[in-house]
Amino acid sequence: MSKSLRVAVLGPKGQCGSCVVDELLSRGHSVVGISRTPPKTWPKSGEYGGIPCDCSDIKGFSNVQSDGDFDAVVSAFGPPLVDLKSVYSVGVEGHGNIKMAILKSTFRGPFIIIGGAGSLFYKHGVQLCDDEDFAFKHWYAWPNVHLNYMSTRMFDHGQQALGRFIRLFKWARANRENPGWFSWLSWLSRPFANWCLRSSKKNLTNPDTIGLILCSRVALTMWEGVKDRNWSFLSPPWQLRDKGIRTGKYEVHVDDSAGSAEQGIDNGIYNEDMAVAIVDEVENNKLNHKHWTCTGPIGLKEW
Ligand SMILES: NC(=O)c1ccc[n+]([C@@H]2O[C@H](COP(=O)([O-])OP(=O)(O)OC[C@H]3O[C@@H](n4cnc5c(N)ncnc54)[C@H](OP(=O)(O)O)[C@@H]3O)[C@@H](O)[C@H]2O)c1
Fold first, then answer.
1. Which one of 20, 55, 77 would you pick to mutate in the ligand 1 pocket, going by the greatest count of ligand atoms within 8 A of its CB?
2. Ligand 1 midpoint to CA 240 (Å)
3. Residues 29, 4 contacting (CB under 8 angstroms)
4. N or C: which terminus of the chain has fewer CB atoms within 10 Å of its end residue's CB?
5. pLDDT at residue 15 in the model
6. 13 in contact with ligand 1, CB cutoff 6 A
């Protein structure tokens, strides 16, 4: 193990941040969780403390970075998803405020930002979020197991309407693609299935719905070109799954407009393994000024 580090995690209780905190603590590092309402204590053993701070308070946020004596900072910030119409603007503002706070602070260690798969490039030079019919076409290509995961996650987070929407989407796709033995029954319900898919397409290609993905791309462009700070930008693969399994196995793919990280578009990783990749980067700092993704074994668990 490397020497014990002091690491700040922005967004410690979120889907991604909580796994990063777990992984850091399990390796004997000390962690400071920073967000509006960070947990005061951590359920797993290790040195953990929380500092409440809203990233819109740029000065306060910057002081926390300057005074924290951190060896590294990981941003797992994500805008709240309660009002889809505001996700993009709140996300862009949040990422911008975090950048300003880091630049104003005296912190000079590695800063790792978690963004979104939509920023990854295809080999034909287009970013996933700019592909035709994004995100409908790409949801349509997801395996059932990932749609099951997505609906379970939405119900877990109290987003019942989204959970039901995903189940309906999966049913409508199956009605069209795999009518099976009861094809006469599927045929009867086909008009309803087609209506569901048409309305899903309208929703999933609406810029409000994909605000999180688009604001993550803006966050990437905010950091690209910055040379006087040590930053690294991770776009998780398209099929990121939480409450998974920590296998400790992953592959890093460094992104460029030639599509060297296209595997991140087609594949996935468990959050627990993505946290292993992030903490390896915290310890080894090999991906400075790079945009990267990581993929790992999935399909080891059903939802
Ligand atoms: N496949 C993919 O590409 C994929 C999938 C999932 C997530 N992601 C990305 O991963 C990142 C994290 O997502 P997540 O799902 O882990 O998010 P999440 O579960 O919603 O957690 C977001 C965190 O941000 C904190 N936060 C929100 N507003 C804040 C503010 N104003 N000031 C300070 N902290 C604030 C929250 O804590 P408080 O509420 O205490 O403030 C929370 O801990 C995002 O960039 C997201 O796009 C990508």
1. 77
2. 14
3. yes
4. N
5. 93
6. yes
How far apart, in Å, do the first and last CA atoms of the chain sit?
33
Assess whether the C-beta atom of 25 lies below 6 angstroms from ligand 1: no
d(CA 167, CA 169): 5
Determine the average pLDDT of the residues in 32-52. Answer: 97
- Per-residue pLDDT, 187: 82
Tokens 């390796």 correspond to what residue? 27
Asked if 296 and 118 touch (Cβ cutoff 8 Å), the reply is no
Q: How far is the CA of 74 from the centre of ligand 1 (A)?
A: 12
Residue of higher predicted confidence among 223 and 157 = 223
Domain coordinates in residue numbering, the chain? 6-129+211-295, 134-207
Q: Is 264 in the pocket of ligand 1 (CB under 6 A)?
A: no
What are 79-131's pLDDT values in tens digits?
Answer: 998 888 999 999 999 999 999 999 999 999 999 999 999 999 999 999 999 99
Ligand 1 lined by 17 (C-beta under 6 Å): yes
Nearest CA to ligand 1 atom 4: 116
pLDDT digits (tens, 9 = 90+) for 231-253: 999 999 999 999 999 999 999 99
Which class is domain 6-129+211-295? alpha beta
For residue 57, the CA-to-ligand 1 centroid distance in Å is 17
Return the ligand 1 atom nearest residue 115 CA: 45
76 CB less than 6 Å from ligand 1?
A: yes
Q: What's the alpha-carbon Rg for the chain, to the nearest Å?
A: 20
The beta strand positions in the chain, using DSSP E, are 6-10, 30-35, 48-52, 72-75, 111-114, 231-234, 239-241, 251-254, 268-270, 291-295
Enumerate residues 6+ apart whose C-beta is below 8 A from 3: none
Nearest residue to 230 via CA among 101, 94, 76, 112: 112
Taking the model in full, what pTM does it have? 0.95
